[in-house]
């Protein structure tokens, strides 16, 4: 009787050893910053530790798309042409994880089946779509708001100056066209920038937001030129402040386009904030000096005075002749 009990125990132990065990992984979320997605599959109780006696199969929703038969890797589905083992050298250690290009890693359930000699096991991993933007929502909002604040303050300056000074129509039209171009480019940049993920589209959008703001500096110079007889130290200081903000923003942009997640988003925000503050202070300055805005009427008096003098001389001569 005791022999039968021992046989049952040995059979149970043998059955237990035939089951491969895995490190538990419930789900994986795609990372928008990575070019590839790792689907983990790690066996914890291999015995032979020899890839020659191992067989690995990866399935998507039950459909085989990748396999390894101990000698070579084979892609079974062209929809997953990028599939490959993380490291064939680490397979004897139990690492049967695969890498997929982000474009091919479709959300869903993936199963990893590993066989070692007469032992086998299977684990299912759920892949979830990565969500979110390149920048944090708060950072994206700050960048967009600060950009349009700087543009609005520029338009406001133009309105104040146009209402209090007369200038050459061509010059005024030129400034208006420059403001319109900057506004249109900014809107296009925002549309591209708000796209999710670390993509060439979102990076191009950030470039259209930051780089074209260089137009604000010559615009500010022209606006001050319309408002003042000569640029004061305050005017030059305000232009310098906006230039400093632009340099800071461009530096931040250069640092951001090569990093995901963003490491220097605050530099871009700081630069745009300085530009917006400079534009606001310029608006206040223009309003304060509004009473001294020069009149751009064509100077007529200096021309008229010699003519009047000449007329007076001629009239005097005529009167003298009549008396004689």
What does this structure look like?
It is a single chain. The protein has 324 residues and is of the alpha+beta class. It has two domains: 19-128, Immunoglobulins (Immunoglobulin-like); 137-292. 50% of the residues lie in helices and 15% in strands. The chain is built from eight helices and nine strands. It has helices at residues 2-17, 137-164, 169-193, 200-210, 216-227, 233-256, 265-288, 301-323, and strands spanning 27-29, 36-39, 54-60, 63-68, 73-75, 84-85, 98-101, 108-116, 119-128. Strands 1-9-8-3-4-5 form a six-stranded mixed sheet, with no helix packed on it. Strands 2-7-6 form a three-stranded antiparallel sheet, with no helix packed on it. A hairpin with a 2-residue loop joins β3 (54-60) and β4. α6 runs antiparallel to α7 (265-288). It is rod-shaped and about 95 Å long. Residues 1-16 and 294-305 have low confidence and may be disordered.
């Amino acid at each position: 009787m005791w022999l039968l009990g021992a046989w049952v125990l040995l059979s149970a132990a043998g059955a237990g050893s035939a089951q491969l065990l895995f490190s538990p992984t419930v789900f994986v979320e795609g990372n928008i910053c990575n070019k590839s997605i790792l689907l983990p599959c790690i066996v914890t109780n291999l015995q032979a530790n020899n890839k020659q006696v191992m067989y690995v199969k990866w399935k998507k929703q039950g459909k085989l798309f990748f396999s390894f038969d101990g000698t070579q890797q084979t892609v079974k589905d062209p929809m997953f042409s990028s599939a490959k083992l993380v490291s064939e050298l680490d397979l004897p250690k139990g690492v049967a994880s695969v890498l997929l290009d982000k474009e091919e890693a479709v959300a869903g359930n993936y199963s990893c089946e590993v066989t070692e000699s007469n032992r086998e096991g299977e684990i299912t991993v759920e892949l979830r779509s990565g969500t979110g933007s390149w920048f944090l929502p708060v950072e994206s909002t700050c960048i967009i708001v600060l950009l349009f604040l700087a543009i609005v303050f520029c338009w406001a300056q133009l309105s104040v100056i146009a209402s209090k000074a007369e200038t050459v129509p061509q010059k005024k039209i030129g400034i208006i066209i420059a403001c319109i171009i900057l506004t249109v480019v900014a809107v296009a940049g925002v549309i591209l920038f708000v796209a999710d993920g670390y993509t060439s589209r979102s990076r191009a959008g950030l470039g259209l937001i930051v780089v074209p703001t260089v137009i604000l500096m010559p615009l500010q110079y022209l606006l001050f030129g319309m408002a003042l007889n000569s640029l004061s130290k305050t005017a030059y200081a305000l232009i310098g402040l906006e230039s400093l903000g632009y340099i800071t923003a461009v530096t931040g942009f250069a640092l951001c386009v090569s990093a995901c997640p963003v490491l220097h988003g605050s530099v871009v925000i700081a630069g745009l904030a300085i530009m917006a503050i400079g534009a606001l202070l310029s608006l206040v300055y223009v309003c304060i000096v509004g009473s001294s805005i020069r009149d751009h009427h064509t100077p007529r008096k200096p021309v008229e005075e010699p003519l009047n003098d000449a007329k007076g001389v001629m009239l005097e001569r005529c009167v003298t002749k009549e008396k004689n």
